[in-house]
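Regression test attached.
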Amino acid sequence: MTDLSAGAASGQTPRSLTQTDARTKKRNAAEKRFRAYGMAAIAAGMFFLVVLLGSIVTNGVTAFQQTFLQVPVYLDPEKLDKTGNRDPEEMKKVSTFGYKPLVEDAVFAAVQAAGIETAFEDAGDMDALFSASAAAQLRDRVLANPDLVGETVTFKILASSRVDGYLKDRVTRDSVARDKNIDAAHLDLVDGMRDASLVTKSFNWDFITGSDASESRPEQAGMGVAMLGSFYMMLVVLGLALPIGVAASIYLEEFAPKNRFTDLIEVNISNLAAVPSIVFGILGLAVFIQFVELPQSAPIVGGLVLTLMTLPTIIIATRASLQSVPPSIRDAALGVGASKMQSVFHHVLPLAMPGILTGTIIGLAQALGETAPLLLIGMVGYIATNYPDNIASGFFDPNSAMPAQIYEWAKRADPAYYERAWGGIIILLVFLFAMNAIAIILRRRFERRW
Amino acid sequence: MPAFWIVLIVLGIAVAGFVLGRSRALNAVIGDRRDLHSLPNYYGWNAALKGVVPALGLLAIWLILQPMLIERAVTGLVSEQAIAEERDLGLVLADVRRVAAGLDAAVAQGLLSGDAARDLSTASDDIRATLATAGVALGSDVQPAVLAAAQRFRVLSGQAGLVMVALVLAISAGGTLYGLREVRPDFRARNVVEQGIRAILIGAACIAILTTVGIVLSLVFNTIEFFRLYPAADFFFSTTWSPSFGGGSELGILPLLWGTLYISLIALLVAVPIGLFAAVYLSEYATKRVRSVAKPAIEILAGIPTIVYGLFALLTVGPLLMKVFGDDGLGWMQAGTAVMTAGLVMGIMLIPFVSSLSDDIINAVPQALRDGSYGLGATQSETIRQVILPAALPGIVGAILLAASRAIGETMIVVLGAGAAARMELNPFEAMTTVTAKIVSQLTGDADFASPEALVAFALGMTLFVITLGLNVLALYIVRKYREQYE
């Protein structure tokens, strides 16, 4: 530290105290610097947060918009229903290949009718404009409503991912030069169609409710099935982790004698909280899939693994919540003749419930975003195209989960899938945000200060 | 789903037991409940618990053990064939299971009668075609031994299933009846029930131990299996990692450890200064308003799932670094995935981890120390550097060690952001890989689980487990040993 005597001893003339000497200036400058470091650190943290959220939103929000070609399609009875009795069973014989020419012709006719100049002279060249699944979607529409056959109906035909990307500025003329799926002439055509409002963008419900699609059809891929997979996993986690976690906490907090066995449990719980999540994946693979032989990729296995991962979180939150209930409550219950068990279950537990629920929701939110263990139990690489048929198949049939689906998309080669991955992250974060908000509201609303 | 129905029936029996037990208790004292030792509900609970707990326990154990025991029983039928074809026994057993499942499906769909399924022979019937119509596709034609084993498998599982249903229901009913017989006015039902609940609570608490045991066993057994196929010395000391599923792999852990430690080091170089200064500022300088905004904002970073950081590394940070350090810029970087990419993003992830732990620790330093320092004329920053940080040092070191253990065990960021090449180099702009990333890549392929290339993942997992556990224990030890005791 500083002292005036040191200055005096070295023979300097003592100056007025109101005037800052060089050393004090230096110290004050150091103080300012230190403070600036702190502020810079906070600013850096905030900056990273903003950049992270910003890049999620800017990259992902376009996934919620999808390009459609709005053209009238003539549903030719000659091709779709030769017998003419509009029997859906018979019409099923016409495969999607039968519908594809209709779409091609319709797009071509619309282009001609709108008077857009194009070098293409063949309806088959329109292929690159719409999705490979457009014909299948048209077929589903027709089979659901056979009376449409013979009429000219305006359909919203799913545009191909290149066209979609072009309208979203992802695909440029430079990138198209190396692309064998589409060429610059198509993009000129799209410009013309946009001016004639044959191409429109609208909100992409299919991205939220739809299923995953194969590698070549990013425009069709959606999160819906993966969301269901996550939902079933969360049901397992909630159904197992909450009761087990609460029971374990009650024992440790209220009943356990102080002995080596209790210590062992405590050490185990605190260690499990710090075990890397991938190790839980190895556990799931070795125990639940190899040893117990549960099906791979099934939400039940994912749920079990995530349960084990979430338990420490729930136990720690529940114990904190039980601890915060004052001993006078227990004493009063015991005093009027309740047994120890009754005092806990009738009085302490209900009072601790808001805290327990808050901890559980936060644990669930953690589990919802966890990816690494799901990779090992095979929830990645599985293309989730089918909704589960019923509740049992929801648990036991292979499915994906939201974070696993995002990872799967991020790994695919087509950049159109990156947009989907960012969009998936937005959906995931909306869920996490909602869960945390519920937890905070619960805590604010019910937390008691004793 | 027979197990589901059994559970429902058992629960039904328990409900009946509860109602009967309660009414029996009330009848025993002719409605005057003062003569009962416990509240009437406890007599009901006694009967219900005795009906449910042993029965469901047996059901769970049975469901786990049955496939293993039956498999052992049919192994004898196919082991010769497996040796003859030089195939792994596990694969043949998988065939057996698939054929058995196919037969079950065929019977369920009415393609085969139960007797026909039992009497099928490979000579006279085209089983593959039959099963294909039932929706079970087989890779090759069914061998006679496999079919015999599958039929035996079906018979045994059918019998075992029947025995299980009978036994579980009998135990459930028996337990309930026993509980009902116990009902007498002087029967201490509450004590018995509370003992039972206590046992359930202890059982729940033991799940933590079971999980640890499960982790250790699944790692240890497979690691031993791995070292039987691959020399341990090569694993620990070889500097080459080049798995090839055709055989002749070199599986040295050193390049992976190097990548892991390098990435973790960069992550800590980012996270520790920022996290620490943020904690100091928040706890010592910030006004209440700033604190109430900045602290939750930084903690949002902790709530974001790691897959998001992974994608951020792959698609945002990687390309950004490429612009500066790539061929168009300084020319140090070949691809967006690199040690620096993963390290930076992991550092961002760890900032809230370091800052909130340090914040707690700094707040725990008593105000008297600060006041004493100010009283001697120290400025605020001198107080922090010379009084508060030394006092909080053990806790901060503990926090940094915990963050390091987090960094070493982190998977998604390195899988997406660090690249796949296992190498030991100093340039942080090169792609390297880590232990966790290789665990994922070795276990998500189509590799046979018995090959060293897949089993090595367990040895890697074991190493990871030991390292992170060691760091955690060390962190706890430092905190406990060097903690300043105030008061």
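Expected vs. actual: identical. Chain A has a mean pLDDT of 84.
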